[in-house]
Amino acid sequence: GQNIDQPTEMTATEGAIVQINCTYQTSGFNGLFWYQQHAGEAPTFLSYNVLDGLEEKGRFSSFLSRSKGYSYLLLKELQMKDSASYLCAVMDSNYQLIWGAGTKLIIKP
Amino acid sequence: GAVVSQHPSRVICKSGTSVKIECRSLDFQATTMFWYRQFPKKSLMLMATSNEGSKATYEQGVEKDKFLINHASLTLSTLTVTSAHPEDSSFYICSARGEADTEAFFGQGTRLTVV
Q1: Confidence bin at B42 (pLDDT 50/70/90)
Q2: Which of A42, A48, A101 sits opposite B93 (nearest CB)?
């Protein structure tokens, strides 16, 4: 079956760095997405990786290793507004998104 | 990024009535629309995928007669929850994707409460 695993919850301190991991097993691979979702709101797009390596976008970076079925989202210089759920999703061979359960990130002052 | 508008953002309805949720792509042609349902503290659950001009493809366990999806144009898809019951109360989110796009863009979501 298809499976996306990510930690349920993480806590970090304002100004610090946090890495949210995601491992996946899917039927085919057409890219991996990271989304941010604040409570009560729809997800917003953060990043898309289809090739191995690191993609940097401001304070956020996303890494992909297709051979390991692994990705991480790196958040630097954490701000209180970064408190949210972070969803990992993989696009399978049918171009359908398979979603992880999300990681709730709690930022403490 | 592209803009997807979902309406209404919140709706309260009486049990037994029907509710229509609209999802519009404002600045691109959405060849594919996805409808999700999200329970509290849970991830998104794909309900159905619709391609413009075709019947929607429903995921296993989703009642197609209860959740009617129409995708009659390249900029509009609607989800109608028929004969709503309190257990249908949830957060419904649409996303839209253009023909040449990989990324799907999300609407703002609709909080449905059935009383």
Answers
A1: confident
A2: A42
